[in-house]
Amino acid sequence: MANVVVVGAQWGDEGKGKIVDWLSSRADVIARFQGGHNAGHTLVVDGKVYKLHALPSGVVRGGKLSVIGNGVVLDPWHLVKEIATVREQGVTISPETLMIAENTPLILPIHGELDRAREEAASKGTKIGTTGRGIGPAYEDKVGRRSIRVADLADDATLEARVDRALQHHDPLRKGLGIEAVDRDALITQLKEIAQDILPYAAPVWKVLNEKRKAGKRILFEGAQGALLDIDFGTYPFVTSSNVIAGQAATGVGIGPGSIDYVLGIVKAYTTRVGEGPFPTELLDAEGKPDADGQRLGERGHEFGTTTGRQRRCGWFDAALVRQTCATSGIKGICLTKLDVLDGFEKLKICVGYELDGDRLDYLPTAADQQARCTPIYEEIDGWSESTEGARSWNDLPANAIKYVRRVEELIECPVALLSTSPERDDTILVTDPFED
Ligand code: IMP
């Protein structure tokens, strides 16, 4: 019985929602292990569209246990609203179907304020382009040992002491940014009120998951963002504040690394990114605006963010970067998505490495100045004029599309386990079932 981790292998927005939904229909437990409500997962189930940010995708399917692990940072006010929204859509959520790890750090309103104030104050070139949801400041408080965690909501004295500790740090910081000091009593009142809504879901998730595992239940670990936004292995500092790579699945819920049997990387057939930071294959014109190919990818691929609505930057497939993320996440197979967006291009380009100061590199170097000087080395491939949308078998694909997929596999040194050919669940070509591998 396999447990599967799903991670984005680029900068997020690879189309994880559909695949996670398909896999979750066959899992017993679906666990989020990092990130927060900066994520946006769109699910289409029986014609109904669900937009989830904090809740694991499993909630929309009956009979599953959904888990928010300790690796997540949780905005309790957002969660309560999200639960209300999906309930209105007919989804049942109860402490039997949703558990939140007691050691999950909370995102407070002051974290969002700080996130946005810093972004506004940032000089050119230093803005991260965050989602403004307070993710970074909440993780800073976690490692700074001044978080308020879910379990702290259960005891008034502990809660007040935790708030005081956090404010010792935050008030001077806010003063420096020209924001008024926090209203301590109002914050404590807000927390005590929300505690009643959150505490019923609090549980020792590590224990529950270890028991489930021993009982032979299937666990699906649902990643958010993408490996190039990883705090250690991403394009730092233009990253999110959590570990996104697959190893985090174990730490983010409290289950050993041996519990992970299969890592599925979700990979878009081209590349997109939201927010600032390096993007070697970005398709720009001389004025720094999307060029004709970049615009075409964005329009055909509907490349607008689920969480912020921002237009995504678009570029050719970067095999060097995906080879890197396949390695750092231990990806066993990929799901290639949105191949149909490439339909109709006469020629396609794939980045196979970089040129830096006359040398050829097969990976993106870490130093920011070197990254900026890297120029992509492209391989050109013939495109196809036929439609690949909705293909359900290899026979439905034009020969050049198959060649493209095969070349991607060779270059990233990882096989295609699934090929997704439209947002519809059944428009998928299955090569390897991650749960059965
Ligand atoms: P933060 O996670 O809000 O701190 O934002 C840091 C960076 O991660 C920014 O470039 C965001 O655009 C990016 N980011 C955060 N969440 C997502 C996501 O779910 N998809 C794509 N990019 C994301």
CATH topology of the largest domain: Adenylosuccinate Synthetase, Chain A, domain 1
Bound molecules: inosinic acid
Strand order of the biggest β-sheet: 7-6-5-2-8-1-9-13-17-18
CATH superfamily of the largest domain: Adenylosuccinate Synthetase, subunit A, domain 1
> If you compute it from the alpha carbons, what radius of gyration comes out, rounded to the nearest whole angstrom?
22 Å
Structural class call reads alpha/beta
Q: Indicate the percent of residues in helices.
A: 25-40%
Number of contiguous helices: 12
Shape: globular
Q: Any idea how many domains?
A: 3
The CATH architecture of the largest domain can be given as 3-Layer(aba) Sandwich
From the N-terminal CA to the C-terminal CA, the straight-line distance is: 9 Å
For the sheet with most strands, the description reads: 10 strands, mixed
Summarize the structure.
The chain has helices at residues 16-24, 76-88, 109-121, 135-143, 156-176, 184-198, 205-214, 248-251, 292-300, 319-329, 368-373, 399-412; strands at residues 4-8, 29-32, 41-45, 48-52, 65-68, 98-101, 202-203, 219-222, 262-268, 271-273, 313-315, 317-318, 333-337, 347-356, 359-361, 375-382, 416-420, 428-430. It is 31% helix and 19% strand. The strands form four sheets. A ten-stranded mixed β-sheet has the order 7-6-5-2-8-1-9-13-17-18, with helices on both faces. Strands 12, 14, 15 and 16 form a four-stranded mixed β-sheet that branches.
